[in-house]
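ok here's B30.2/SPRY domain-containing protein, seq below lol
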Amino acid sequence: MAKRKITNELRFLKARIAKLQRMERTEESMNDENIEAFEQSGNEVDGPAFIDSLESDVTNGENEELPLTGRQQLKKFREKFVKMENELKESRHLNKISKLEQQNKDLREKIKHCELVAELNTIREKVAKIGEEKQREKEYTKYAPIGDFEAIFGRIGEDKKKAATKGKYGKRIYTQDTWMFESTSVFFQILSDWVALGIFSNTDPKVLLRRWRSGYRKRHPEATAQVQCGVFVIDGDQMDVQENRTRGQRRELPTKLTVGQSNGHQTLLDRINELEGQLKSLQQQQEEETSKYVSVELFNEIQNDHNELLEKFIVLEKQLKELQQNMTNECGGESVGTSGGSARTQGHFTRKVDLLQGKEHLRAQVQSNFRQNCWDENTSQNDIKIKDGTSLTVHCKGNAWVFRSIFAMHSILLNNNYSSRRIFYYEISLKNMKGWAIFGLAMKQQQTPKDETIRYRPGTYAYEKNGELWINGKRKEGNAGNSYGVGDTVGIGVNLLSRRIIFTKNGRQLDNYELLASSYSADCFFFPFVTLSLNGAGDKIDANFGPNFRFDLVTL
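and the structure came out like this:
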């Protein structure tokens, strides 16, 4: 009976081991509780429990007749069974790892897809920006390709047809002479655009005008004056202008200006030509300074600002054209030879000179943005010594509450739409500092005191030594921990378009992104300034007005 029982037990173990081997090959998930037990005498037997009980019986001597080889085989089967269970658990762990790796792979593919979409959007934005730049370039060739006089004649011919259409309805009757005068004004406007763009920089505008008028007369020999209302001097030549009254009624007026009036007009026009030459020279200086001080990264922004500047000049040219038209109308209404007509004409030319001077001021403002700034010696006193225009040294030991404020030579216009620089910025470095220091931007006026701090005055934006910020003369709270001292480099800047104020320390921008200059200061001129106390004899700071700063302006 004992041998039969062991034989049945061995058969059960072999069957169980074979089943585990099949499950391992097919990688099926299973639990130890679901293994089908071998049936003996109509009862289900748990394999591990049966092996434990059998081993316990052998140990207790209840099965003494069991051969030794049987006990060894039982132990061997038990070890193999435990080993196979461990392998099954390891297989389950490997399956779990495989699933996690597949999920990780899917996530990587999704991230890569998102990066591709973001890159595609960036490319689309660049394409749109290039399209806008090309459209902006087309605005300067709306009359014709630059330098193409034949295309300009076609444009002026279209204007002539439109003028004739107006005449049919009795609004105004245009003749060849009146049209020629207005066409000349159009040519002046186009020519001024070309000169502003740097075209024909080596060609005299007088030569270009004579060349155009000569070609016009050859193509339109019928355009001759029949009834004159005045003689206008344009670049040394006389042009006859006729003004017809409505419904064909003509009114003859004196045909010549007096010698004195002609000389006065010639003087004014010479002054105009001189101002145009100055504008051209300022433009060349601007281009040279741009190549020195402007980096390649800011070139596109400078081009955009330059285009806005040219649009302002075009507006001024249109105003000049309106003055010429008003002058022509008044010549048709009253005698040019009379003193009243002469004074009115003289006034128009004076306004024209004023407008050109305004253009010269705009050019000078653009140029000033590229000049190297420095401290103004006229604003310093004997207590502060200036060296090389940028270095300040306190050489007088005085009271701790006595201050001296020094301003820079050149200013900035906060709401400056004509500037070719988008950001105005400068830095100071503290070489030696025992006293107190404040620096920033402020409006310099005649009543501005130079023997006290000016941080609390309206229109002042300052950075104090203890880290406090002053915005429009008021303290900005919550800026603790940004104090500066010896060895530090601090800076202040302003966006000329958005009026946003920035402060930096050692090449890092402070977390004050919401600071804006007030609208009260929108059209004011600001000067860099530094306020030092006199109790720190030997204190020294160095200013850096550009173009190379410790803080990278390209990051703005």
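fwiw The mean pLDDT is 65. kinda neat tbh
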